[in-house]
TrEMBL record:
Residues 92-217 form the DH domain. This is ARH38 factor. It comes from Eulacestoma nigropectus (wattled ploughbill). Residues 18-85 are annotated as: Disordered. The lineage of its organism: Eukaryota, Metazoa, Chordata, Craniata, Vertebrata. Signal peptide: none annotated. The gene is Arhgef38.
C-alpha cells in the first residue's frame, strides 16, 4: 500500500530485522545449555569438580605406580657397618669360648695321664723315701675342679645361641672353689720343686721318675 521507493526501503528494513531475529534465535538454540542456564556460582562448582577429578586421577596413578619408584633402602650404610662390626665381634667371642673349652679339655687330659701314669704307679711302689703327695700336692683336686669347670662351660654353650651364652656366670659360680684349690697348689709349688730336684740327684728315685715319664710317651 505504500508508494514507490519508500515502500521498497521499508520492506528491505523489515527483511534485515527479520534475518537478525532469526539468527539470534538460531544461536540460542545451538549454544550449550550450561552457558544459558548456569550462574557464576555454578561455573565455580564445575571448575572445582574438574579439579577434584584431576587430583583424584593423580593420586590413583601414584598408588598404581610400581613400588620400586619410591623404594628406599631398609638400612643406612652406617647401620650396615655397625651390623658388620657386631658380627665380627660375635664371631671372635665364639672363637674365644671354643678355644677356652678346648684348652680346658687338653688340661684335663694331661692331668688324667699324670694321675694314671705317674702318681698311681709311684704310690703303688710305696717307696719310703718318695713323698708322692708332697711332690704332687693337691693335683687330684685340681683335676676334679677342672672337670667341673668344663662341665659348666659345656652346659652353658650346648644348644644355646652364641648371644645367649653367659660364660661369665660360670666363672662367678666356681670362683670360690677355684681360689681355694689353687691357693693350696700354689702354696706348695716351691716346696714340690725343691723336692723334685733332690729326687733327681738320687739315681734310684730318678729312675722311678724316668720310668713314669717314659710311659707317658
Amino acid at each position: 500500500d505504500c508508494p514507490g521507493k519508500e515502500c521498497t526501503g521499508g520492506r528491505k528494513s523489515n527483511l534485515t530485522l527479520l534475518r537478525n531475529k532469526l539468527y539470534m534465535g538460531q544461536r540460542r538454540r545451538t549454544e550449550p545449555v550450561v552457558e544459558s542456564t548456569t550462574t557464576a556460582g555454578d561455573h565455580g562448582n564445575l571448575r572445582r569438580s574438574q579439579s577434584d577429578r584431576t587430583e583424584y586421577s593423580q593420586k590413583l596413578q601414584e598408588k598404581m605406580a610400581p613400588q620400586a619408584v619410591s623404594f628406599t633402602p631398609a638400612t643406612s650404610p652406617q647401620e650396615d657397618e655397625e651390623e658388620e662390626v657386631s658380627r665380627r665381634m660375635m664371631a671372635r667371642r665364639v672363637k674365644i669360648i671354643t678355644e677356652l673349652m678346648q684348652t680346658e679339655k687338653d688340661y684335663i687330659s694331661d692331668l688324667d695321664l699324670c694321675i694314671k701314669e705317674v702318681i698311681q704307679p709311684l704310690r703303688n711302689k710305696q717307696i719310703a723315701r718318695f713323698d708322692v703327695d708332697g711332690l704332687f700336692s693337691n693335683i687330684e683336686l685340681v683335676h676334679q675342679l677342672s672337670a667341673k669347670l668344663l662341665s659348666l662351660l659345656e652346659e652353658a654353650t650346648t644348644d644355646v645361641e652364641p648371644p645367649m651364652q653367659i660364660i661369665g656366670e660360670v666363672f662367678l659360680q666356681i670362683k670360690g672353689p677355684l681360689e681355694d684349690t689353687y691357693k693350696i697348689y700354689c702354696y706348695h709349688h716351691d716346696d714340690a720343686h725343691t723336692m723334685l730336684e733332690s729326687y733327681e740327684r738320687d739315681e734310684e728315685l730318678k729312675q722311678h721318675l724316668r720310668d713314669c715319664v717314659q710311659s707317658l710317651k
